[in-house]
Amino acid sequence: MSQQRKKLVVGNWKLHGRLADNAVLLDAVAQAASRLPEQVKVGVCVPCPYLAQTQTLLAGSVVGWGSQDVSAHLQGAYTGEVAAEMVAEFGATFAIVGHSERRAYHRESADLVAIKAGRALTAGLTPIVCVGETLEQREAGTTEQVVGVQLDEVLARLSLEEAARIVVAYEPVWAIGTGKSATAAEAQAVHAFLRKLLVARGAEVGGVSVLYGGSVKPDNAEELFRQPDIDGGLIGGASLKAQDFLAICNAAAATL
Ligand code: PGA
User: Which of 23, 94, 211, 212 is the most exposed place for a label (fewest CB within 10 A)?
Assistant: First the structure.
């Protein structure tokens, strides 16, 4: 099945970037991405103030861009929020929603994440819906239950047509920014479970991409991306170093 799905590698810059550094990085990514096979798609999710710069520098490139969150609201008196429509106005095509850092530090509930995914879709963005268990939950044997509820909450709020347009990212919380990636086998097991949940909603939804995220690096990317149910990666720390990010994109190409 993974043979039919394209590989997708998306950088999540988190709270990093400055105009001058971004320009160098975006230029390197755009150039390298132009040499990748067409079946490897690349994206970067930048802090919102840099959407305009990203749009300017990536215009005409094969690289997509987006935000790391969107508001659950359309507009109104919500100080500090950024609406999906605003992000889309900058030519963006992606919006990460439900990242574990937002669930943990901003108390985002599964229900709120589901609303955000819907907002992104309505604005024409592809929501990258993050799910993942903590170390405690993994050790308690509840990984499938946790990620299953996180995914089901989102799917329950979407029509089948909408659900077919999302991307899912499995990001075990204990692997994010720790240097301790899930093994390919550990990740594949959870991806296979998520795939089963998606397929249960029908063939269209069953075909959505499921990315792995959590300490993906040049030296573990290819093995992860070779797993049958891993369709690419959501890359944090390594997406800030052009060389590493490009090596990860090349690892995706090597699996085709
Ligand atoms: P990491 O982050 O690659 O730095 O572990 C991944 C993510 O949080 O999306």
Answer: 23
Q: Which atom of ligand 1 is least distant from the CA of 239?
A: 3
Mutate to test the pocket of ligand 1, among 181, 234, 241, 248 (most ligand atoms within 8 A of CB): 234
Residue 1 lies in a domain: no
Phi, psi torsion values for 162, nearest 5 degrees: -70, -45
Q: Per-residue pLDDT tens for 16-56?
A: 999 999 999 999 999 999 999 999 999 999 999 999 999 99
Cα separation, 118 vs 154, in Å, equals 8
What pTM was estimated for this model as a whole?
0.97
214 CB near ligand 1 (under 6 Å): yes
How many domains does the chain contain in total?
1
Cβ–ligand 1 distance for 237 under 6 Å, the answer yes
The answer to whether residue 93 is domain-embedded is yes
The residue whose CA is least distant from atom 3 of ligand 1 is 236
Q: Residue 126: in which H helix or E strand, if any?
A: strand 126-131
Domain of residue 127, CATH code: 3.20.20.70
Q: What is the pLDDT of residues 77-86, one digit of tens each?
A: 999 999 999 9
Q: What is the four-CA torsion angle of 185, 191, 193, 194, rounded to 10 degrees? A: 170
| Residue 2 maps to a domain | no
The boundaries of the domain holding residue 166 are 7-254
